[in-house]
Specification:
The protein contains nine helices and 14 strands. Helices cover 31% and strands 13% of the residues. InterPro entries: Znf_C2H2_type.
């Protein structure tokens, strides 16, 4: 059995599939069922809706109160209250997820995200791990992407080092936190603002922060698979507003599904 969503800790054990059912067609299909060892897949939302209705008939109470893994997105942690909303979510949020892991359901817009995912969750198979490329879904990085990312960077203190020096200049006096207004000793303010998820390295898509690059990349890969693999460093000296991860990936890693399947 293989875990279809190894990044999903809360339901990872429910979403298992026999290895024989993890076919190329299952991986590349936009709609797939993650119920325990189901393995159903299709290219149309109408067919997927009909399949989900069969699962729903087997549920005698509200689907969310029982095992309703089939109502969870196969590509992220989104959980829907209805079949309609789930299918709409897949068609819109994951529309441009053109790069698919060959070991599970993980899919992303950014091939670098797939590689980070594989190194985190399929390391024992990494020598043979492939990225299934779906050209019809690819959306190239553009200036519009950069503008959207820049709009996310509405941060009060961009330069953490500058802020640290500013706090040290205040010595031992007490000042108000700019986030919660709590009165804190200036020399304790850096520790305090970490409670607000303010760290040297920040996610550009949500409020998550940390002081470790590998951890922030894993966060973006796990929580924002539909986005580009980027993060923000709170330092204005010789550092761009955001870092876009672009590691070299061997062309041999890629399988063009429209040519090979």
């Amino acid at each position: 059995m293989v875990a279809l969503q190894p990044w999903n800790g809360k339901d990872g054990n429910k979403m298992l599939l026999h290895t024989s059912k993890l076919t190329d067609q299952f991986l590349t299909a936009p709609f797939k069922c993650t119920a325990f060892n189901c393995g159903f897949y299709t290219n149309t939302s109408q067919t997927m809706a009909s399949h989900f209705q069969r699962h729903q008939k087997l549920t005698t109470v509200h689907p969310i109160t029982r095992d309703s893994s089939w109502l969870e997105c196969c590509y992220c942690n989104y959980v829907s209250l209805s079949v309609h909303n789930l299918l709409q979510h897949i068609e819109t949020v994951h529309k441009y997820s053109a790069y698919q892991c060959d070991r599970c359901c993980y899919r992303s817009r950014d091939p670098n995200s797939v590689r980070v995912h594989q190194l985190n969750y399929h390391l024992e198979y990494d020598a043979d791990a492939k990225i299934v490329w779906i050209p019809s879904r690819q959306k190239e990085y553009s200036s519009m992407d950069r503008d959207i990312i820049m709009n996310h960077l509405k941060i009060n203190f961009n330069d953490m080092e500058e802020y640290q020096n500013h706090m040290k200049a205040h010595g031992l006096i007490y000042i108000a936190c700019h986030v919660c207004d709590l009165i804190v000793a200036a020399n304790k303010m850096i520790d305090h603002i970490s409670s607000h998820n303010i760290f040297m390295i920040q996610c550009i898509y949500c409020d998550y922060g940390i002081n470790d690059v590998n951890t922030i990349m894993k966060h973006v890969v796990d929580e924002h698979s539909d986005e580009l693999l980027c993060y923000h460093v709170r330092c204005s000296k010789n550092v761009p507003p955001f870092i876009r991860v672009q590691n070299r990936i061997s062309p041999e890693r890629f399988i063009n599904c429209e040519q090979n399947f």
